[in-house]
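User: quick one, sequence for these tokens?
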């Protein structure tokens, strides 16, 4: 009897060419780990593209490309992540594109379960499972575990019910033919891509076995910077007016409150949970003010977060 892993690999071997697209900026210290995690999982016809603008990250990428012909460096015009993705998509040859970042790393067995659902022609995209690489023993690390585990449970619920799913920008795959250019002012490009695919009548599936490990912020200032730019994308008109929704302050309160209150395993973690409620109120108030009222552009909201590197 074949094992589940060999069955997945058999399915994947019948899929068309894959392009892995990694976007990075000033991530010379981490992009090598991101590349190395993907390389053993690629087939001989697949490719790995790294889109980055800075010399340090480019130098690391080119050193890997010298030893692995599957790797290509694509010059990032440095006009924001959506523009970088558009440049990468224009250069990609694969029928299925796997998206990831230069400061995260996928599990050794992530790619096969991420790609397997594409055997169904009705599937347009598949999202992986972000897992926190931060310690649960600190307040911000605990928040990252609560939020990622909560997102995992919500995706499981939606996937089992056939409901709309948002792809996670840390790791997802999509059919390239379904991807028109991404609006270059999009703060949440993963949400925009998800809505584009759903609008074409294709299903987005969840592959919980396709794990990607993420280091989350270690200071409250960095936590706010990261969350304002990601949550802010859901307050932009292009996302907020879409019929396909999964994330908002209202939906978070409706579906996340009970889970959050059940998540703590100690009095200390319960206190951190209450602090997270206050932090999320702070976050959504900032999003409303900066995105809905002031309409600040991507260039002002997309601030680099150093403690995740």
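Assistant:
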């Amino acid at each position: 009897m074949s094992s589940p892993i060999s069955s997945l690999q058999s399915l994947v071997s019948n899929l068309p060419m894959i392009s892995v697209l990694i976007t990075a900026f000033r991530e010379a210290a981490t992009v090598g780990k991101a590349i190395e995690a993907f390389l053993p999982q690629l087939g001989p016809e697949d490719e790995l593209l790294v889109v980055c603008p800075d010399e340090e990250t480019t130098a690391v990428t080119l050193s890997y490309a010298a030893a692995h012909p599957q790797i290509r460096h694509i010059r990032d015009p440095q006009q924001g992540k959506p523009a970088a993705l558009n440049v990468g998509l224009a250069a990609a040859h694969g029928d299925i594109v796997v998206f990831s970042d230069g400061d995260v790393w996928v599990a050794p067995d992530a790619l096969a379960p991420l790609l397997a659902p594409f055997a169904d022609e009705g599937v347009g995209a598949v999202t992986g499972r972000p897992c926190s690489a931060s310690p649960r023993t600190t307040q911000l690390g605990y928040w990252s575990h609560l939020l990622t585990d909560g997102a995992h449970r919500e995706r499981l619920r939606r996937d089992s019910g056939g409901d709309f799913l948002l792809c996670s920008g840390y790791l997802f795959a999509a059919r390239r033919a379904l991807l028109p250019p991404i609006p270059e002012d999009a703060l949440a490009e993963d949400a925009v891509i998800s809505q584009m695919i759903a609008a074409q009548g294709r299903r987005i599936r969840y592959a919980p076995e396709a794990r990607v490990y993420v280091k989350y912020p270690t200071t409250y200032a960095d936590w706010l910077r990261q969350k304002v730019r990601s949550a802010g994308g859901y307050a932009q008109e292009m996302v907020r007016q879409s019929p396909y929704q999964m994330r908002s302050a209202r939906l978070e309160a409706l579906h996340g409150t009970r889970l959050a209150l059940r998540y703590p395993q100690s009095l200390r973690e319960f206190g951190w949970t209450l602090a997270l409620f206050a932090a999320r109120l702070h976050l959504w108030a900032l999003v409303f003010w900066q995105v809905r009222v002031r309409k600040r552009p991507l260039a002002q909201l997309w601030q680099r977060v150093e403690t995740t590197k």
